[in-house]
Amino acid sequence: MSPTDQSGTYAPAPMVHDLVAKITGRYDLVVRQQEADRLLAAEGAGHIVHDLPARADGRTVSLASRPWRLDPIPIVLDAAEFHALGDRVIARMRMLEAILADLYGARTLLTDRIVEPSDVWASYRYRLAAIGQLASPRWLTTYSVDVAKDTSGQWHVVQDLTDQPPGAGYTFMGRNVLARVHRDVVASLPRGAGLRSIDPFADQLRDALADLAKTESPRIVVMSGGVEHPSFVGQAYLASRLGLNLAEGADLVVRRRRLWLRSLAGLEPIDVLHRRLEGDRIDPMEVNAQGHGGVPGLLDAVRAGGVRLANAHGTGVLEDPVLAESWDEAGDWISDRYRRVGDVEPLRRMSAERRSQIDFELAPCLVGQEIVHRAVVLRLQLVASDRKIEVMQGASARVLSPGDDPNVPTAATAKDVWVIGGTVAPPVVARREPLPQVDLIASVPTRAAEALFWAGRALERAELVARSLEVVLERTTGVIDTDTAEPWVIPSSAMLMQIAGLPKGARVTADSTPAPSEVIERTLTALAKQLGSVLAEVSSVREFFSTSAGRAFARLASSRAAIQRLQQDNAVVRAAQIDRGLLDSILNDLSSVIGLWNESVVRGPAWHFGEIGRRLERVFGVIDGVRGALALSTIEPKTVREEYDAQRLIEIVLATNESLVAYRRRYRSDVEFALAMDLVVSDERNPRAAMSALRSVVTEARALEWDEGVAIAEELVALLQAEQYDTVAGTMATLGELWKGADRLARGIVTAYLASPLDPRVMGRPS
Amino acid sequence: MTDPVAVSTSAGTQYRVTHRTDYSYGATMADGYSVAYLLVRPTPSQRVLSSMLTTTPAPDEYDERPDVFGNRMVQLGVHQPHDDFTVEAVSDVVVYTQERPRSNQPWERVAAQVAALRGPLVLETSAFTAPSRYVTVAEHRAALLRLANAAFTPGRPILNGVETLCTMIFETFAFDSTFTDVSTPLGDVLHARRGVCQDFAHLAVGCLRALGLAARYVSGYLETEPPPGEERSIGADASHAWCSVWIPDHGWLDFDPTNGVVAPNRHVTVGWGRDYADVAPLRGVVIGPSSLQTLSVSVDVSRV
Questions:
Q1: Strands in A653-730 per DSSP E
Q2: For a FRET experiment, which of A291, A385, A549, A699 has its CA 20 to 30 Å from that of B297?
Q3: Do B295 and A297 touch (CB under 8 A)?
Q4: Which is more confidently placed, B258 or A15?
């Protein structure tokens, strides 16, 4: 325990000093910063980038999130000080709960003009639909509060976050990273001064959510704002930390005054919704609702008791900046009125005018190679259950740049907050029966399956584009636009066009094929676009992928950024300027993602959809490669020179499909058209062939009991078995049939399973 | 907040209101959710004989409940495939002449009383003193006050002020149904000096709120065919909107700036709110493919 001085503030305990000194004094702090960056990127904070393209369902992803970094120096508080602070923020949460109950209930704060009534009504966050509602059993299930300490050791509230209190997910993520970076430091903490775990908070939160429901084993989902939401990464992390499904508005539907999750298994009832979307966005039917990300009729279901919300609708009014300064006085008034005595005094907010006069206590931070001292704001997490209010035994903090308003820091540096010492009480969480919705394998939101399907397609296409680009570049020796360029360069650039999906019309023609250097530049653009699609899709289903996959995604995001930089620097990228290392790295990362997809994703319904997407795209890719290469070439050589060119071209097709080595090992001869085509299209022993992909589609379609899919895929298998590849024309005709069949499969699966509802649109307005 | 049933001694006029809205979605929708403010409420000068709402297709879910202002709000859900949606409300009401306030204090005194109210009257008035989505007082305070101050000169009795403001809007703003839809920003209306009834209601409400008075937006209808010898009113073939001002020791007094009438007696009230957004006759969302939607509305108000 640390000594308490006369004013009631705590002098820092020596062990806190020691620990901070030990960390700031480390010679390898910069290395640890890099380690933190790397781990954070892998957790998913890195690969959600600002300019992701349109997703398969037409929604565009444009993120307002700021990049953030985790400072390697934690803020350390001793347990006694943290405990006293915790008691005061618990008292504040109780105070805010009482204020909400009044604002939406008796409204004495308005009728006695303790709060200016017109200011309350003017706030769009004062929700009309919540007035007169009983938030049952409570308004605030979770509460985040930003606090700062002044140089005299007094804590102040900077802001209350009550609508969808953010930060718990990021705090778990930050702790996970920093505890690994400083594993040695944590291990060496003396007995009685150990680092307190924040893990119990996850159980406390899950229990508090379960408490809201009337049933014994309630189904709970976390409702995210979607990939577009600035806190999406934290929301997704929190959901998987809690073992709950992450759902978006389009995943949920209200029927018969209940809330249901649209899953592959049909509609599943939901008892509790932990909303991570602001109150004015959750139900587009409400007066003055914003956006279309919510669930129409949700508040009707809430009103009818068909689903419980955490937090209740309307709690955001406390965050209104015009009103925020009134709550301390309102709390005093309510507590006088109800003659509450003996309670802990709630921690008070500092007024905007006093803020500039307060000297904040500074914390050491690593900036570049140096340690500088900066003001910090801590974000504490609280959760209320039927039993009590708990405070997470740790927190995250934001570093303020000089001159920052603590409410809106420009800095994007976060800090982990450590609480050390104190007796660790045994967990008092009552164990419940396992909650049924924890089965993330069977009950998959339809949208997640859809995202995985498109992710599978984008992954395979990105791999094919990158591979074909590499193969063509390897064979050009940098000479591609001059008269000395080899004749097969033109047909191979036609193949690149086709694979990258560039021709405006359906087919490539000599006239429509630009100069090879331009083709390469445009293929590179297409590659960046495909990588963007991969990232956009996997970001929304991040919970299906491992941390190792997260690392690969983070590297793919930076490779994509590197391509975009390359293109900004040069109007036309010369082939020679393309860093082959970049393509190598992209191919490596794509391969590891595909490998991890096969090795570490549980084989549930979602996996089948991703797998079908990936295999169908391979079929399309094989067709595109062959068609593109043959589009400008007759392959019926009349001279020896032409024979040589035709062979080079077929080699490129083989190499693009990673089948050149297999060909040489098998035939030990010059490449021949029929044998080569058989190998890349029809040979079921070649895992890269269209035939193998079709066989996998048959298997996955059987697993889904998708009879139509099985029948079509089997027809296509028979088609390829029969083809002899005697003539170019015959080959092209067969590939045309194959394309039509694969297209029927791709459309069929979307119609049969995935045709998810579009975002709701306003009635009476053209779309 | 309950409104007393009309007890006016004057002979009222009975009306039948038929309000029909047809949506044609141009594609098959899987789900439709709508909120209707179409059922009329009783007021001190309006007796409701009946008010019914029907839809085609019939709704799978139908809920009626009072909103925070005591309006009759209907929430509808259609969960079967449908290409069209028709909502029809038929109401029979008796409308009486509104009473005028007996006292007529200077408007400043009224504003001071509004600001100092305590108790239940705060709940009755305070929502209507605040800026709202369409009544953007803060953004247009100067322009609103220029207009308001011309009508409400210092020391002027409130009734005279309201009458002048009502006449000024009627005479100096042009009714132009091509100019706006219901969501026109107040600034555009102030600048162009033209608009439709919703705009003039928002404008008048904005002027009064800028002065510190409580003023609400009223949604309803106007008699379609006037009695013989009288002129046809403006805005009679669609939903109409006007406003109401709070006067101490009296209550709410309606006035219609689109027609320049104080205490109108040919108006059927559906409900009221801070502005159009609170009581839009019909709003909703549909879930289905993108398509070109069309919408047609017809309103008939006849004497029975």
A1: none
A2: A291
A3: no
A4: B258
Give alpha helix (H) positions in A571-604. 580-600
- 8 Å CB contact between A555 and A563: no
When mean pLDDT is compared over A45-54, A303-312, A530-539, the highest value belongs to A303-312
Q: Could you tell me the two tokens for A452?
A: 């995985």
Residue with the bigger pLDDT between B287 and A116: it is A116
pLDDT at A517: 78
> Contact B31/A253, CB-based, under 8 Å?
yes
Tokens 């035709």, residue?
Answer: A646
What does DSSP assign to residue A753?
I
Distance CA B135, CA B198 (A): 11
Report the distance separating Cα B70 and Cα B269, nearest Å: 13
Cis peptide before A296 (omega within 30 of 0): no
Query: A-chain residues within 8 Å CB-CB of B120?
Result: 111
Q: What confidence tier does A587 reach under pLDDT thresholds 50, 70, 90? A: very high
Where is pLDDT greater, at B290 or B99?
A: B99
Please give the C-alpha separations between residue A505 and each of A464, A502, A513, A746, in angstroms, as whole numbers: 21, 9, 11, 21
DSSP string, B143-188: HHHHHHHHHS-TT-BHHHHHHHHHHHHHHHSEE-TTT--TT--HHH
Chain A contacts of B290, Cβ < 8 Å? 758, 761, 767
CA B39 vs CA B21, B93, B236, B269: distances in Å: 14, 11, 18, 10
Chain A residue closest in CA terms to B59: A256
Across A213-222, A299-308, A540-549, B156-165, the highest mean pLDDT is recorded for B156-165
- CB atoms A111 and B118 under 8 Å: yes
Compute the C-alpha angle B102/B108/B114, nearest 5°. 80
Residues above pLDDT 70, as percent of chain A: 83
Give the C-alpha separation, A612 to A592, whole Å. 19
Given a cut of 90, is residue A109 above it in pLDDT?
A: yes
Question: pLDDT at residue B77 above 60?
Answer: yes
What pLDDT is attached to residue B6? Answer: 44
Closest alpha carbon within chain B to A128: B68
Residue B154 has pLDDT above 80, yes or no: yes
- Which H or E element spans position A418? strand A413-420
A113 and B118 within 8 Å at the Cβ level: the answer is yes
pTM for the full predicted model:
0.83
* Nearest residue in chain B measured CA to CA from A284: B285
What tokens were used for A478? 């940098």
Q: Which residue has the tokens 């010898």?
A: B229
Report B:177-216 residues touching A (Cβ under 8 A): none
> How far apart (Å, rounded) are the C-alpha atoms in residues A159 and A321?
9
CA dihedral A216, A217, A222, A223 (to 10 degrees): -70
Beta-strand pair A370-384/B240-247: unpaired
Interface of A with B in 107-146 (CB under 8 A): 107, 110-113, 117-122, 124, 128, 131-132
Q: Which of A107, A287, A297 has its CB closest to that of B33?
A: A297
Nearest CA to CA, how far is A392 from chain B (Å)?
Answer: 38
Report strand pairing: A413-420 vs A69-70: parallel
Q: Are B300 and B17 in contact (CB under 8 A)?
A: yes
Residue A754 pLDDT > 90: no
Q: Does B30 touch chain A (CB under 8 A)?
A: yes
Q: Which residue has the higher pLDDT, A217 or A111?
A: A111
> Does A288 contact B277 at a Cβ distance shorter than 8 Å?
yes
Is A758 in Cβ contact with B287 (below 8 Å)? yes
Instruction: Using CB atoms, pick whichever of B77, B123, B133 lies closest to residue A288.
Output: B133
Q: How far apart are CA A21 and CA A8, in angstroms?
A: 25
pLDDT on residue B299 = 92
pLDDT, residue A592, reads 92
Answer for the pair A201, A168: CB distance below 8 angstroms, yes or no: yes
